[in-house]
């Protein structure tokens, strides 16, 4: 007799069955003779077959039943539930069981399809992201281009305004006090530099109050156009030698520098520079100085071994001249100042700064 069927795994229940019903026919167990028949008293009590938590429906003639306390399940019902194909060979009295389809293969194929679908979705998102990044990059480029155009227009506008103002100033002030003045402007709307070339003898013959009035009139005209501008100016003779400097604060206050203040002699200033800078961060420097009081120009030259120069950081290289020029500017406030650093061996220029 067949033991009570357990369907925990696909083939266990099928192999364990020794007496089943095929196509509604009751089969005998292997204890019977090949052609013997026996009448059984089967009890049907609504027995259910559950596979992986799912109840398997039974058709007529395939309902599980009990005989003498043993439960029998039709092999076709169990086989179909487990995805098996059953063929009854009546001639040879053989039940052929074979796989109809691999559920694992179906699951794998389903998962493969899901993976393919997810990959397609991922590629679509990647394409959308690439397009979005490209759009952002294009917009950033456009913004940069537009900002450049705006800055250019602003610069052109400032330069155009300064150019027009320069023409107006020359028309209005060229003949003031018979100075034969020539006025040029540079800078922007916030910081304006002005250079005024005049006849030197006529300028020197003007009283300080008239010199101030002349410069104040020009500065007031500038501030009418650029109210918040800071103005720095230089008065020069026709040979471009500096006569005096002046400045106008953003509040409109005019300050005039002295044109012939007492300044140190060349030898005195050179001694001071050599005292303070003959050794810079342990590196020996050779310093030369030329002061032209007539043209109000100062030129300082520094000679250094190229290897020592290369060993310095860029900030320290810059400080060699900037420190000296700061000292010179304090002593010669109205002078044009130039500074140079040269290779002590080849005399090639390594740096240049001006004030």
Short description:
This protein is of the alpha+beta class and 355 residues long. The chain has eight helices and 19 strands.
Report what the structure shows.
The structure is a single chain. The chain has 355 residues and is α+β, with helices and mostly antiparallel strands. It folds into 4 domains: 49-99, no CATH class; 102-156; 160-257, 2-Layer Sandwich (GMP Synthetase, Chain A, domain 3); 266-354, GMP Synthetase, Chain A, domain 3. Helices cover 41% and strands 26% of the residues. It is built from 8 helices and 19 strands. The protein has helices at residues 10-16, 75-81, 103-173, 200-205, 208-225, 266-277, 306-311, 314-331, and strands at 21-22, 25-26, 49-51, 54-56, 65-67, 70-72, 84-89, 94-99, 182-187, 191-197, 230-236, 242-248, 254-256, 279-280, 283-284, 286-292, 297-304, 336-343, 349-354. The chain has a 5-stranded mixed β-sheet with strand order 9-10-11-12-13. A hairpin with a 5-residue loop joins strand 12 (242-248) and strand 13. The protein starts with 9 loop residues before the first helix and ends with a strand.
